[in-house]
Amino acid sequence: MAANPQFLKYVDDHQDDYIKRLSDAVAIASVSGNLSYVKDVEAMGEYLVQQLTALGATVEKRGIGKHTLEGKEVDLPPVIIGQVGNDPKKKTLLVYGHYDVQPALKEDGWLYPPFELTPDPKGSGKLYGRGSTDDKGPVLGWINVLEAHKNLGIELPVNLKMCFEGMEENGSVNLDKFIESEKDKFFSGVDCMCISDNYWLDTKTPCLTYGLRGINYYEIKINGPDRDLHSGVFGGTVHEPMTDLIALMSKLVTPTGEILVPGVKEMIAPLTDDEKAKFEAIHFAMSDIHGAVGGDVTISNDTVKTLMGRMRNPSLSLHGIEGAFSAPGSKTVIPCQVKGKFSIRLVPNLTVAGVTEHVVKYVKEEFAKLGSKNTLDVYLTHGGEPWIADPNHYSYRAAHKATEAVYGQTPDYTREGGSIPVTLDFANILGLNVLLLPVGRGDDGAHSTNEKIDTSNYINGTKLLGSYMYELAAISKD
């Protein structure tokens, strides 16, 4: 079912109104990880409540407990839940988004004040502002869709349930418990789910995302003497913790990215012909990644291998050393204790527990080979499982049709290299197929300075979300 042409025309005719709405939202500095912005996060939640209520949605703010922020116990930002329609003859779609943002200061290198939506004065259509693409723009896309239908007097083609949280940028604390508690209440009767909190792979080609890598984050701690030592006095007489740590970290991964931990590669799910075909069909050039990283430093020059390295295969990255001297100048210290930090991106069949078992065993064995009198501790600090959905599900087929209708292009089918932990929570707890339907482009700079969304993506993204609902209403579940 093609989208109602009145709806599409309404979106085109009200671009200025939608940009004003985004400007109002960006102006609320809803930084969830900073105590100074607690009231702003709450204000952003209240803004969404007011917007949704005015558009006829049944809306509730739900408290989900407290947390400690900068040493002070404060209420967690509320979860905003809303619903429009409960027709048993219609499919019920659940959508998720978040209304909190990353910190941003003008002095960090922003071209413009980060909490003032600023159109590019060069006329490119870029709209700069913190949260413009992550995730206020996409959240407001759903509100734009509701407003268009209400003002046109047109019923939504599906029943819509919405869940918007204010803690995603700070770990989505307690959201999993909320989902579990509402599994048979607010979330009952949902057919499928859509999240718009990711991005196109490039700047030209829309995509549908059906997988996310998980992550295991580890620390290796080496303890030696009970105090820092002078290398001129004690160098050559003691086992140095830093030397042990460097030796161990050099045994984890090769310069070409090969993971050296035994057993990890053997856990990877076999590549299917369907998977390989999807990677081969992606519109991607090596210049895209060269531009993103600022130079030709890729391990491979093959596009499919590079895409699979980013999306489908596990990777091990070394992140840093804590306790070592790192200030400018020269200091001849032997640190008494150091921590090495690294992570492994997980893919299907690599579980948090299974990979951790291999890592701990291997690091302990390698440490024993050093013959050091220092002591070792290696442990997982946090982990998240990988996620993959069925891209042939009717929800994906509906999104495919909607993308072709709005953009005149066949979407790429991608998997993200990073993690969106709530995706797994919703999929596992509610047993839903989850569609990741991005609005923004690959160069939007989420979490970075000068975050932006292109006007065309914001407006066409609104059309896409609405068109997806129409296609979802019409498509068979078979």
UniProtKB/TrEMBL annotation:
Gene3D superfamilies, sorted: 3.30.70.360, Zn peptidases
Metal-binding as UniProt keyword: yes
Domain Peptidase M20 dimerisation intervals: 210-368
Positions that bind Mn(2+) 1: 134, 169, 447
GO molecular function terms attached to this record: metal ion binding; metallodipeptidase activity
Domain of life: Eukaryota
Keywords: Hydrolase, Manganese, Metal-binding, Metalloprotease, Protease
Keyword Lipoprotein listed: no
CDD domains, per the entry: M20_dipept_like_CNDP
Binding site for substrate: 197, 230, 332, 345, 419, 447
Binding note for cofactor: Binds 2 manganese ions per subunit.
Active site: 100, 168
Residues marked Important for catalytic activity (site): 230
InterPro entries: ArgE/DapE_CS, CNDP/DUG1, Cyt/Met_Dipeptidase, Peptidase_M20, Peptidase_M20_dimer
Annotated PANTHER family: BETA-ALA-HIS DIPEPTIDASE, CARNOSINE DIPEPTIDASE 2, ISOFORM A
UniProt protein name: Peptidase M20 dimerisation domain-containing protein
